[in-house]
Amino acid sequence: MIQYIIRRSLYALPLLLGVNILTFVLFFVVNSPDDMARMQLGQKHVTEQAIVNWKRQHGYDKPLLWNAEQSGVKKISETIFYRKSIGLFLFDFGTSDSGRNIGADIKQRMWPSLALALPSLLVGLLVNITVALMMVLFRNTYLEFGSIVLCVILMSISSLFYIIGGQFLIGKLLKLVPISGYDTGLEAIKFLVLPVLISVVAGVGSGARWYRTLFLEEVEKDYVRTARAKGLSEPQVLFKHVLKNAMIPILTGVVVILPLLFMGSLIMESFFSIPGLGSYTIDAINRQDFAIVRSMVFLGSALYIFGLLLTDISYTLVDPRVRLS
Amino acid sequence: MIVLWTDALLFILVLMLLILGVYMSRKAHMRRPLRKIGRSKTGMAALVVLLFFLLIGLLDSLHFKDNGEVISVLDYLARPLQENSEKTYSAPFAAYLYSKETITQADGSTRWGYPRLRYGGAHLQDPEREKSGDIAAKGLVGFAKGAGLMLLFMLLLWSFFKDRHRHLLAHGSTRAVLTTLFLLVSGFYTLVYLSSYYHVLGTDKVGEDVFYQAIKSVRTGLVIGSLTTMIMLPLAILFGIMAGFFRGWVDDVIQYVYTTLNSIPSVLLIAASILMVQVYMANHPEEFNSLLVRADMRLLFLCLILGVTSWTGLCRMLRAETLKLREMEYVLAAQALGVTRSMILFRHILPNVMHIVLISVVLDFSSLVLAEAVLSYINIGVDPTTYSWGNMINGARLEMARDPIVWWSLAASFVFMFSLVLAANLFADSVRNAFDPRRAEHG
What PANTHER family does the annotation carry (chain B) (predicted)? Predict the structure, then answer.
């Protein structure tokens, strides 16, 4: 088991390297550091000296991938790519182009993101699974047909409208909760209720439909027929047997996204002005701060790969048929 | 006649779809699922709505030069709408502006009030008294014209089909199609008729007709939804089948590529690339001289990058399916007979994974249209000058805070986007029901 984990972690290295090279190439092949400097400095007519200064200050004054002037290992190490990447692998994100410490920002901003994403995930899961089980319980009735139609309708509405509608109805008309903002400690709850509610409602259409197909597939299996034959009632069959056996695919889906919860939701956070990592990224995109966007991409992929590893491990814990070799 | 990149690609796509349709209707094993789609009432009704949107999109994709400016056929048809712009906001069917200003009256004196609109309801003498009656009358006339047109068309259809294809007319899905067509054409005609007298969906901040904006946005939604699939399909099919069929190092490399791409959060990848394009365009203004070309390039690039991020899912599915197929008896038999690998891939593997491709294409379409709106909202979608539902929502966001609120831009984009996505979802469901072998067994 431990061997397996170590091997899988080593396998993550080439993936992360690939991600790193890809984002690096994306950013720098078309934009030279000169362009970046000009953009950050803001004016169209900046002096050459200002650009040189900016580049030196932010470490962009070296060649991109290959330093022909140096010798030996320094040919690779004295480049922007090496300098800007090696820190990422050690989770030292350096400073942003506007001069702030990215690592400190991330540490501070991941808590609001978690506070929003974790309840959204849990409540959403609970609601989706309950609705899906109800649909399976009442299968082949008008109730099921109606809820499928409702699910398709809910799915066809853009998440933007859920947010705008929710803010307008609950925040502005009913004045139950503040429309947007954030506070520290327990005070934050009143700001979080609405975004959590909206993300649950926005996800219920596609979520419930997805779990319904999972359950339906399970319902047709032999052991379910056996359970019915021995006289269990339909709800008992569903909640005791089907739910338990459908847990495996559900788990796979959930565990992968667990680590990504740190990153928060870009749209929710920016709409509700919650100072999490999602809004941090959007701000960086709008300010065209390459260092932050690149760090977030790296962090995101590292977490995703970590999630995949977690999924595989959790598989063995739940399903005795799976053996890791 | 001016052909933009996305125009050309869109028309090629339609052509390809037609060829695919003809090809599939000739193959016996494909005809069964196609007939199943044909029998589904909601599926066919949704298809009619989709085709209607496609028609609007195609009309908007035929660009030509008129008096020095590039316009599309749709612009030409909607010319009065485009030109009849007001000063600023006005509500749907309003005859007065939404905000007060100083009006100079006929006798030279001034007063503070809501001025009359330049175009909306301009033919009325006394809007407050005449308006509702006039709207009802004009609406009725428009509806009668549209309905008459449709009735004529149906009569033609009936006289043509009544003898030889009677069973077709009696079929439930034919009736569903005709009903949808009737409602759609007469409803749309009514709106178009009314819109030459009123701003049926109001005007926005700079006084542009919202109905016109919403219709122009159809093309953007369609382009994103369809071109992205067209870009992602070849990648997914080629790599998926190759990884499954050749295995070994080919499989390893392809798996590495798609895991790497998959592990980057797609929104961030899209953001990064769009940022890059923006900077590139800012640094090379000479290549992107006209606003239209600029916006078009950005749209095309958005499709490209969305395609690059979204081929991985389908690729993985195709790989798994090919792994299964290559051990099938008929493939082994073909190998034993000495059929070349490329021939096996083309004749045996490809046709047998087509149903997966088809299902995932129709399923992806609606999510892409939704994604466009979200991306445009966070400024990494289409160009801000392009008409799109995402841009409309983005623009309307601050208007919600006004008092009284300006709701019509939002409502318009909601209705249009909702009907396109709903139709796509319903159609996707019937395609999946027809082509998914696991569902086919249950009838």
Answer: OLIGOPEPTIDE TRANSPORT SYSTEM PERMEASE PROTEIN AMID (PTHR43386:SF24), OLIGOPEPTIDE TRANSPORT SYSTEM PERMEASE PROTEIN APPC (PTHR43386)
- For residues B227 and B11, the answer to whether their CB atoms sit within 8 Å is no
What confidence score (pLDDT) does residue A153 get?
92
Q: What is the CATH number of the domain that holds B428?
A: 1.10.3720.10
The owner of tokens 């991306």 is B375
Identify which of B264, B397, B418 has the shortest CB distance to residue A297: B264
Asked if A19's CB is within 8 angstroms of B263's CB, the reply is yes
Output the pLDDT for position A128. 93
Q: Which residues contact B51 (CB under 8 A, 6 or more apart)?
A: none
Burial class (CB in 10 A: 0-12, 13-18, 19+), A320: exposed
Q: Is residue A218 part of a domain?
A: yes
Domain residues for the domain of B368 are: 5-75+209-439
Find residue B315's DSSP bridge partners: none
Burial B151-172 (b: 16+ CB within 10 A, else e): eeeeeeeeeeeeeeeeeeeebe
pLDDT at B443: 40
The DSSP bridge pattern shows strands B101-104 and B69-72 to be unpaired
Looking at this protein, which amino acid is placed at residue A36?
Answer: M
Same domain? B93 vs B61: no
Choose among B259, B263, B421: nearest Cβ to A156. Answer: B421
How many contacts (CB atoms, under 8 Å) link A and B?
122
Same-domain status, B137 and B176:
yes
- Higher local confidence (pLDDT), A33 or A306: A306
Q: Is B418 within 8 Å of A156 when comparing Cβ atoms? A: yes
What is the spatial distance between Cα A283 and Cα A278, in angstroms, rounded to a whole number?
9
- Do B402 and B197 meet the contact criterion of CB atoms below 8 Å apart? no
Distance CA B264, CA B271 (A): 12
B380 CA to chain A: closest CA distance, Å? 8
Return the number of other C-beta atoms located less than 10 Å from residue B296's C-beta. 21
Asked whether residue A277 is domain-assigned, the answer is yes
**Token pair in block for residue A151:** 């699910």
Across A76-226, where does the E strand assignment appear? none
What are the phi and psi torsion angles at B102 (to 5°)? -80, 125
Are B271 and A285 an interchain contact pair (Cβ–Cβ within 8 Å)?
A: yes
Asked if residue A108 has pLDDT above 60, the reply is yes
Cα B191–chain centre separation: 20
To the nearest 10°, report the CA torsion of B15, B20, B25, B31: -140
Sign of CA pseudo-dihedral A109, A113, A118, A119: positive
Give the predicted TM-score (pTM) of the model.
Answer: 0.88
Number of domains in chain B: 2
For residue A47, give its domain range.
2-90
ipTM of the complex: 0.84
Higher per-residue confidence, B337 vs A251: B337
User: Which of B195-226 are b and which e, b meaning 16 or more Cβ less than 10 Å from the residue's Cβ?
Assistant: bebbbbbbbbeebbbbbbbbbbbbbbbbbbbb
Nearest to B45 by CA among B176, B168, B185, B172: B176
Residues in chain A closer than 8 A to B264 (CB atoms): 19, 22-23, 297, 300-301
Count of other CB atoms within 10 angstroms of residue A137? 17
**Do residues A179 and A31 share a domain?**
no
Same domain, A250 and A212: yes
Q: Identify the top-confidence range among A97-101, A232-236, B97-101.
A: A232-236
Nearest to B244 by CA among B87, B352, B95: B352
Q: How confident is the model at residue A80 (pLDDT cuts 50, 70, 90)?
A: confident
For residue B440, the model assigns a pLDDT of 52
B335, B395: one domain = yes
Q: B71: which strand partners?
A: B64
